[in-house]
Design a protein that fits this description.
Chain lengths: ~500, ~160
């Protein structure tokens, strides 16, 4: 069994040094920043700080060395084996033909030491029992392992070293069909800022409206005259919008320029290969038949401006898991493109998953809101009644304040209902489904529209939901359960004609 | 496909469970009243708290005592060589269809009360979601699991031949 590369320990020494330093800094920051502590206090506490740092560093380094000693990997004729873990020894064996996804990852420190982490995944639906392989090696070794495993999983027979690489760039930065160029990144950032500003403004307008309603009733001095009130309200709104937009700007720049640096989608034989990242470099490789669904999403602002993001549901990749050794974070096929370009792009990359025009349309707008109105209405009226009753019985406030509070609560509830109405009418327009051959396209969502395209063979169950009243009118919602290990493996299509499930039933039980 | 109703024993079990739940609500409500009586709370505040907690508690009590029979009436299940269908739900009527070839594993679960009453729950796992056929008699559950296992094998063979 071959051990991991020694670079793992060296990069670990640096990572742990920085980590320990950060931990000690966070632990003692309060003491050093306190105004009352004198220089003599600081010198007396310094040895203690150094001792904590030393102990932490030694502990972490010890762990690294033990991890290194316990680790190892081996490629046999049929399978790849891997040992790792200090407290919990983990031994994984994975058949070559069961490999779902291969992922190469490199953070900045690992790149300085020239090493990379390779994770191989079996893609079991139960992610806690994945037979997972982790190999930490020199970058060149990882690259050759990646190629070797790719050829091994395809045919089961190791290909010759001189084999001609059939790598074909599908989409890359320099490609004329799709490129996540700086211009597009700027646009992407701008749209994120507009989204944040729009959300902040909407919230602020609601708050100002509610406060104005109260101010009209209660003549208390703390809100000032109407003129002062509006000046302050506008100033606070502008301030908040600018502040949140700044956060959004920073987040978007990091996300698009650093996270998506050098974004390329390439084809290697029967595999799709997505690489991205500046500081932490990722290369995700998986075969076409591991793709379970393609999801096209559009936020509200993106929708108005005609842009979209294309995501992939791939078996073997968990979404947002905490374990750093797992293949996380995959999912984005195209970070940002025009909505009208989607057909063209998917034609080149995944022609089987091109969305079809929807064949059904929603039947009734009221059904989208009826349950919300009923439940929210009862809750809102009940809470209003309770608040007013408590205030009146216990004589907590004069009648004008009670009236103001009731108006504030009622207008808040009305605002929520108005928001729900907008979302419901968007859902009403969006919802729909198309069945073309063995391909199903589902349109769903309110403020955020999503289009999910998948094959009938990846549909594990169909559920239809209706109420007695809706049944009489022949309408129901359809929930389709997909074969993915994403937590959200359900696609819900609201309020369609009742005949739809029958067609899906037939597809399922062919 | 023939849809089966649940056994009468299941209704008894659900009522037993509802009774336990109801008892816990009554205990909580009694504790609240006792605490209020012992503490020096003004009559107004006590009235408000009691009304605010007793009304939802009473509604909940009525609901959990009526719910099992409604649920029982709405529940039915059935299977054939190709699929499993479960219908359930009082207000939202749900109908789940699971193709036999998508079944990954089958589980039978029993709690202490279920064991005493000879009942079992069956969970059908697929590669994406799990589906419960809640509370069958143990014989029914065993028969269902055996039949599904057999159907699954036959179906997998059939599909293999079709693909070739």
């Amino acid at each position: 069994m071959k051990r991991f590369d020694k670079g793992y320990i060296f990069s670990g020494l640096l990572t742990d040094f920085l980590g320990s330093l950060a931990a000690v800094f966070l632990l003692f920051i309060d003491f050093f920043l306190e105004e009352e502590s004198t220089p003599s206090d600081m010198t007396s506490v310094l040895p203690f700080t150094v001792a904590v740092f030393g102990a932490l560093y030694l502990l972490l380094t010890g762990y690294r060395i033990l991890y290194y000693r316990a680790s190892g990997y081996e490629l046999t004729d049929k399978e790849i084996k891997c040992n790792r873990g200090v407290l919990f020894r983990k031994r994984s064996v994975l058949d070559y033909n069961r490999i779902h996804a291969i992922n190469k990852k490199q953070n900045l420190i690992q790149r300085i030491f020239g090493i990379a982490v390779l994770t191989v995944d079996s893609g079991s639906a139960n992610t806690s029992h994945q037979a997972e392989i982790t190999v930490i090696e020199r970058e060149a070794v990882v690259d050759s392992l990646l190629d070797r495993l790719n050829s091994l999983k395809a045919g089961g027979i190791e290909a010759k070293a001189e084999k001609e690489k059939k790598e074909k760039l599908l989409l890359s930065e320099g490609d004329d069909l799709y490129s996540f160029t700086s211009g597009k990144k700027v646009l992407y950032t701008l749209i994120n800022i507009i989204s944040t500003a729009f959300l902040t403004l909407t919230l602020a307008v609601f708050a100002i409206a509610v406060l104005s309603a109260c101010k009209g009733v209660v003549r208390l001095g703390f809100l000032g005259s109407w003129g002062e009130y509006f000046i302050y309200a506008v100033l606070i709104t502008v301030g908040a919008t600018l502040l949140f937009s700044l956060f959004s700007l920073i987040g978007s720049i990091i996300h698009s320029f650093v996270g998506y640096y050098g974004f390329t989608v390439a084809r290697r034989d029967n595999n799709l290969c997505i690489s991205y990242g500046l500081f932490e470099k990722h290369t995700n490789t998986f075969s076409y038949d591991r793709i379970k669904a393609v999801k096209i999403t559009q936020g509200l602002v993106q929708r108005f401006l005609g842009f979209a993001t294309i995501r992939l549901e791939v078996i073997g990749y968990t979404v947002g898991g905490g374990d750093e050794n797992k293949n996380t974070g995959i999912g984005v096929l195209i970070p940002f493109c025009r909505y009208c370009e989607i057909g063209e792009i998917l034609d080149r990359v995944l022609p089987d998953y091109k969305p079809d025009e929807k064949q059904t349309c929603s039947v009734s707008l009221f059904s989208f809101m009826s349950w919300f109105l009923l439940i929210f209405g009862i809750c809102a009226i009940a809470s209003l009644a309770v608040v007013v009753a408590i205030m009146a019985v216990l004589r907590l406030a004069p009648p004008s304040v009670i009236l103001a509070v009731s108006i504030a609560l009622a207008s808040l509830a009305l605002a929520v209902v108005a928001l729900k109405f907008v979302s419901a009418s968007l859902s009403y327009r969006t919802s729909g489904i198309a069945v073309e051959g063995d391909r199903i396209t589902a349109y769903s969502g309110g403020f955020t529209r999503s289009i999910t395209v998948f094959k009938a063979k990846n549909l594990v169950a169909v559920e239809d939901v209706t109420t007695p009243l809706r049944k009489k009118r022949g309408i129901s919602s359809v929930i389709m359960h997909l074969k993915t290990n994403a937590q959200s493996n359900e696609v819900k299509i609201h309020i369609q004609k009742d005949t739809l499930p029958d067609r899906l039933d037939k597809m399922l039980t062919l | 496909m023939k849809m089966n109703m649940l056994d009468k024993k299941v209704l008894k079990y659900w009522y037993l469970r509802a009774a336990f739940f109801a008892l816990s609500i009554i205990i909580v409500e009694a504790t609240v009243t006792a605490v209020l009586l012992l503490g020096e709370v003004s009559a107004d505040l006590m009235a408000v708290i009691l009304v605010c907690s007793a009304v939802p508690a009473l509604l909940l009590l009525c609901f959990i005592l009526v719910f099992p029979s409604l649920r029982y009436k709405a529940y039915s299940w059935g299977y054939d060589e190709k699929r499993v269908i479960v219908r359930y739900g009082v207000v939202f009527r749900r109908r789940v269809l699971i193709p036999v070839c998508q079944i990954q594993d089958l589980h039978r679960t029993q709690g202490p009360i279920m064991m005493m009453m000879g009942l079992s729950g069956v969970t059908v796992s697929t590669a994406g979601s799990n589906f419960n056929i809640s509370t069958l008699t143990t014989e029914e559950a065993d028969r269902l699991i055996d039949a599904l296992e057999e159907n699954l094998e036959v179906r997998v063979e059939e599909l293999k031949n079709e693909e070739i």
